[in-house]
Amino acid sequence: MSKVDQLKRVEVAALQDLSVGIGKRVNVSGEEIALFKQKGGTVSAIQNSCPHKGGPLSEGIVSGEHVFCPLHDWKINMKDGQVQAPDVGCVKKYEVEIVGEKVYIFVD
Amino acid sequence: MGYLQKKVKEIKERWTVTEKLVLIGNGMAGIRTVEEILKKDASRFQITVFGEEPHPNYNRIMLSSVLQGDSTVDDIVLNDYNWYEENHIELLTGDPIVKVDAEKQVVYSQNGLERSYDKLIFATGSNAFMLPLPGADKEGVIAFRNIKDCETMIETSKKHKKAVVIGGGLLGLEAARGLLNLNMEVDVIHIADFLMERQLDEQAGKMLKTELEAQGMRFHLKKNTKQILGKDRVQGIEFTDGTSLETDLVVMAVGIKPNIALAQEAGLTTERAIVVDDFMQTNVNQIYAVGECAQHRGIAYGLVAPLYEQGKVLAAHICSENESLEHGYQGSLVYTQLKVSGVNVFSAGHFQDSKETKAIRVHDEFEGIYKKVVVQDNKVVGAVLFGDTSDSTRLLSMMRNGDDISAMSKVALLPSESGEAQVSPVVAMADGDNVCDCNGISKGAICSAITENGLTTVEEVKQCTTAGRSCGGCKPLIADLLTLTTGEEVGNMPEPLCGCTEYTHEEVVAEIRELGLSHPREVMNVLGWESDEGCSKCRPAINYYLKMVDPIKNADDPTSRFINERAHANINHNGTFTVVPRMYGGVTDSGQLRKIADVADKYNVPLLKITGGQRIDLFGVEKEDLPNVWSDLGMRSGSAYAKALRTVKTCVGEQFCRFGTQDSIGLGVELEKKFEYINTPHKVKMAVSACPRNCAESGIKDFGVVGVDGGWELYVGGNGGVDLRGGDLFCKVKTKEEIIDTISAFMQYYRENARYLERTSHFVERVGLDQMKQVILEDEEGRKSLINRMEIALSTGKDPWKEIVENEELQKEFKKKQVEVLS
Ligand SMILES: Cc1cc2nc3c(=O)[nH]c(=O)nc-3n(C[C@H](O)[C@H](O)[C@H](O)COP(=O)(O)OP(=O)(O)OC[C@H]3O[C@@H](n4cnc5c(N)ncnc54)[C@H](O)[C@@H]3O)c2cc1C
Ligand code: SF4
Ligand code: FES
């Protein structure tokens, strides 16, 4: 069985509720997740907690596929979850699927 | 192949094909060695690290700084847990190795784990040496070696008042300084007749004592402790001369003892420490030792720089197949610096006088400076510097290189005495000389990092090269190197706005004006930004400049604003927000207080606090509650989060005070009402006091007004924050109207000419007060047009809370979506 099959698909937002350049928080059964809509209409979903000291990434300044943590300005790539140099670390990222207007993510 | 099979194969490969390296001791020397190994060959070893302490590798040197309150335990972590994971290192903390079977090549941990190894490194460091005194096992008798000791001291200081430090050496004095900072009374007991006798000569030791006494330490020299008194907990100590002292805490800092018991049991040769050769190899095959637990050519070092050199050699050795290629470890020249604020002490090499040596001494009793340079066979072999340690780098470099000084004049050895403009010691350094000894980063390495990566600040150099990351003592040298390499004075050079562009702040503003740009994206496009979307530094700046240049036409771009200015509240460390309603001039009434109380109850506000700016903070509000909180309060936003006018603090003045000669509250309220919601390059604070007693602290505000008989004085550029600065008297006027006009013109000049995030204090220093007086006070036309432009900008200000409360669409950003996963 492939990995994705074991995950659950959850509807988290409607595409029109998201705006480019501003993150959105969703709480999925206790897990805080940040959603970011990109210019091309795709959506990234990452854990809403900065690996530095847990800052809420959904509140950060967005620059393309990066978000700057609002607490101490760490720069995080929302596509792969990697913290950018010189800081190190990563956040969990979630697979996203968009069907029509609906945004789904996969959680375990 | 299925996922699982693949994983199993991967794991098997890793454990069978690669060699296994086990490190005992998760401390500074051991982990540095691992870092060096990873740099050379990241896939060569399967690495396992055992550490006795329940922490990842941290910077032991900085414990002094944690104790002194300048850093937290989190700040001093050098390699966090992620680092181990990313480098596929198995880390077992809180689990010491208790047995090594060198024959079978297996180690055993206290928790019963076993790991076999191909190579084993001992990096077990030292233990603090505890004097075997009667009573030394009582509660409250501790050492100063690890995080736990630090925590114990901090805890103790909360309940107890008196502390004794045994040992007047480096560590003891740093502990004593920390305990003073924790508000304890501190007595230092020392056996010798002057302090730090292992690093200083008598003269410097005495000067140090005087200095530290002035800081509040009490010294008891030539004292021998006989026993520690008390029941379960220490209550006092008694000396061999019969005298005694009461105390609640005893910190022993009399020396360190290499931690070698495990090595001895494993059959390694030990003397004072584990004996190693030039490649850090012990007498047993495949076992190495590095750090404080190792003894090389008779010396066991107790400082980080030599240990890091050892780590480098060891890494090169075990990563190379061909031993004969390398150069082994040759021993190190050591030097020390005391990390106590306000005291500069430096000592290196052979600083004691002997028959073969001659010394140059400089002693300036007025300035409290003492310098001694010890010379043998025309070479500098040692030095002690007290009070002014600026010569240290140059002297060290002379010592390392063995420079012949016979041709130099004696004065040239200590040139800072000559009174001429000082040349930075980095100028004379060779490229190979270390600037940061802790991390072994050379001048050459730093210079190339600066040029290759276009670094402009000490912080950037630190991030990029790790220089300055340990004790921080080399930061002034790094700043000098920046100046030297970039040819510009650090701080004065025209800084590019950020890493995305070459344009300076001024150039960006000029282009916006000239080309009539109107949106951040347009600015970045037209000016060829390196990243299309900018970053968290340039976007807010550009957004500010656009609104400043044309407040009417240019729209605000919320995505370029920091969260505080989007949520109109201050973000807290846990993601909640702080709400501060406006209270003009710090004046409130029972109606407002009642509303605040009701809101606090309704939304379970965990903390209410009076701010420094005379109003009330409601801490810990959830983001989704913000619009409702504002609506229930029915008050205006206090802009406590904004780059804008924050507060106008006022004294009570003539309304009630018997000294007041002016209506300070009235003027304060008027100023606050006029300038609220105007955007400025950085926050702006004001104060109005009604007489020179200055109860509203007008001297440390961006604009501070002080009432005097028959008029008002205006102070500008004051700052009570990071860079404390008293304001400059700007002018003295008769009427309120003149004050308001002058502030208006000044603030507009600041808005137009300061760089984003430049406070008025820095702006005034950069531009110069005379220039500002010329424009704002003397040029009548200029003043009028500044005031006009300010009026236009003011016409666009509105209360953001009200806007959001009245507009459902705007409230959307505050909502949080809750989704339940059904299984
Ligand atoms: C307060 C303070 C201030 C200092 N200031 C300076 C300074 O300004 N400049 C300077 O150069 N040096 C300074 N030092 C000294 C410097 O910190 C040490 O020289 C350095 O940390 C030694 O590194 P190490 O790796 O050899 O030992 P450590 O850093 O002590 O690491 C050894 C680790 O091994 C662990 N360990 C021991 N036995 C076992 C076992 N059996 N199994 C598993 N783990 C084990 C220990 O718990 C410890 O964590 C200072 C030290 C202190 C305490
Ligand atoms: S500054 Fe002067 S007028 Fe104002 S409260 Fe203090 S003493 Fe009274
Ligand atoms: S919590 Fe994100 S940068 Fe500090």
Brief sketch in words of this structure:
Chain A has 108 residues and is mainly beta. Chain A has one helix at residues 3-6, and strands spanning 8-14, 24-28, 31-37, 43-47, 61-63, 66-68, 75-77, 93-94, 96-99, 102-107. Chain A has a single domain (18-107), classed as 3-layer Sandwich (Rieske Iron-sulfur Protein), CATH 2.102.10.10.
Distance between the termini of chain B: 30 Å
Structural class of chain B: alpha/beta
Mean pLDDT across residues of chain A: 89
SSE pattern of chain A, N- to C-terminal: HEEEEEEEEEE
Helical content class of chain B:
25-40%
Shape of chain A: globular
Q: What is the count of β-strands of chain B?
A: 37
Q: Tally the helices of chain B: what do you get? A: 27
CATH class annotation of chain A: Mainly Beta
Strand numbers in spatial order across the main sheet of chain A: 2-3-4-8
Biggest pleated-sheet summary of chain A: 4 strands, antiparallel
What's the CATH topology name of chain A? Rieske Iron-sulfur Protein
Question: Which band does the percent of strand residues of chain A land in?
Answer: 35-45%
Backbone CA Rg of chain A: 13 Å
Instruction: Give every kind of bound small molecule, once each.
Output: flavin-adenine dinucleotide, iron/sulfur cluster, FE2/S2 (inorganic) cluster
What's the number of extended β-strand segments of chain A?
10
Structural class label of chain A: mainly beta
Uncertain segments of chain B are: 417-421
Q: Measured on Cα atoms, how large is the radius of gyration of chain B?
A: 32 Å
Number of contiguous helices of chain A? 1
| Helicity level of chain A | under 10%
Protein name (chain A): Assimilatory nitrite reductase [NAD(P)H] small subunit
InterPro entries (chain A): Rieske-like_NirD, Rieske_2Fe-2S, Rieske_2Fe-2S_sf
Keywords (chain A): 2Fe-2S, Iron, Iron-sulfur, Metal-binding, Nitrate assimilation, Oxidoreductase
GO molecular function (chain A): 2 iron, 2 sulfur cluster binding; metal ion binding; monooxygenase activity; nitrite reductase [NAD(P)H] activity; oxidoreductase activity, acting on paired donors, with incorporation or reduction of molecular oxygen
